[in-house]
């Protein structure tokens, strides 16, 4: 099921790339595999620094009363901002496409009780490493690294 | 200067309360005191769980290239989601109206190098404690506490 869920996040990342944006996608699923929300980074498209992929998927899922049985799937290891989202709302599981390009707070989430799975998916590694090589300034802006 | 900056966040929190929302406000300031962005929690008003006060102020400030000299001011100690925002984007200073009603990740931010000031402001304590007493279910929803 993880691979099928990741496919949705990869589709979102590719949509972001086509829009000229940062290619990171995410999706939130219920325990039975129902898609609750999906989205991608919108820094460039919406000129909005607050919308990372995980934030967008979380927003798209609307107001939920209990996230413990949900799974957040993302093409790239979440940054502190998005790791904080997962922890605060008690999202039970996190599936990560890859953590080679960027390794966020995965250990922090594991220690907080989140079930973390890293798929090390070739599509995710290629898409993100090519993007970072092509647009390093934009990437650094997105993770708060000053010039 | 902290009190004057907090006044902006309090105004935002009160605006949220008038709109029927959760009364938490925030603002982002440059080192010279220039207001960069301001906002408040919009869970109820926008039906959007992703917009906490700090997120809203961060978004309102638009894309910035370097947050190290900025100060985030918020009426209530930030949750993990908003603490993650502060940490990831390297916001240098955090001014908190109160941390009696909710104590987020302040120690975590201090250990990450963020300068944290807690003002223990009576207006903030009263507004938030009255809200939590009046609407405990909505408050728990906003911080991811299941029923």
From TrEMBL, chains A, B:
<dbReference type="GO" id="GO:0008835">
    <property type="term" value="F:diaminohydroxyphosphoribosylaminopyrimidine deaminase activity"/>
</dbReference>
<dbReference type="GO" id="GO:0005737">
    <property type="term" value="C:cytoplasm"/>
</dbReference>
<keyword id="KW-0963">Cytoplasm</keyword>
<keyword id="KW-0862">Zinc</keyword>
<dbReference type="GO" id="GO:0046872">
    <property type="term" value="F:metal ion binding"/>
</dbReference>
<dbReference type="InterPro" id="IPR016193">
    <property type="entry name" value="Cytidine_deaminase-like"/>
</dbReference>
<dbReference type="InterPro" id="IPR002125">
    <property type="entry name" value="CMP_dCMP_dom"/>
</dbReference>
<keyword id="KW-0479">Metal-binding</keyword>
<comment type="subunit">
    <text>Homodimer.</text>
</comment>
<comment type="pathway">
    <text>Pyrimidine metabolism.</text>
</comment>
<dbReference type="GO" id="GO:0055086">
    <property type="term" value="P:nucleobase-containing small molecule metabolic process"/>
</dbReference>
<protein>
    <submittedName>
        <fullName>tRNA-specific adenosine deaminase</fullName>
    </submittedName>
</protein>
<keyword id="KW-0378">Hydrolase</keyword>
<dbReference type="GO" id="GO:0072527">
    <property type="term" value="P:pyrimidine-containing compound metabolic process"/>
</dbReference>
<dbReference type="Pfam" id="PF00383">
    <property type="entry name" value="dCMP_cyt_deam_1"/>
</dbReference>
<feature type="domain" description="CMP/dCMP-type deaminase">
    <location>
        <begin position="1"/>
        <end position="109"/>
    </location>
</feature>
């Amino acid at each position: 099921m993880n691979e099928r869920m990741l496919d949705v996040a990869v589709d979102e990342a590719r949509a972001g790339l086509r829009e000229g944006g940062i290619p990171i996608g995410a999706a939130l699923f219920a325990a039975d595999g129902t898609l609750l929300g999906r989205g991608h980074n919108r820094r460039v498209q919406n000129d909005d620094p607050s919308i990372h992929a995980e934030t967008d998927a979380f927003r798209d899922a609307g107001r939920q009363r209990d996230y413990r049985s949900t799974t957040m799937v993302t093409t790239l290891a979440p940054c502190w901002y998005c790791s904080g989202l997962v922890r605060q709302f008690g999202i039970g599981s996190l599936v990560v496409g890859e953590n080679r390009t960027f390794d966020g707070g995965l250990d922090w989430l594991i220690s907080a009780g989140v079930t973390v799975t890293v798929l090390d998916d070739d599509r995710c590694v290629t898409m993100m490493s090519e993007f970072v090589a092509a647009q390093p300034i934009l990437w650094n802006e997105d993770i708060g690294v000053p010039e």
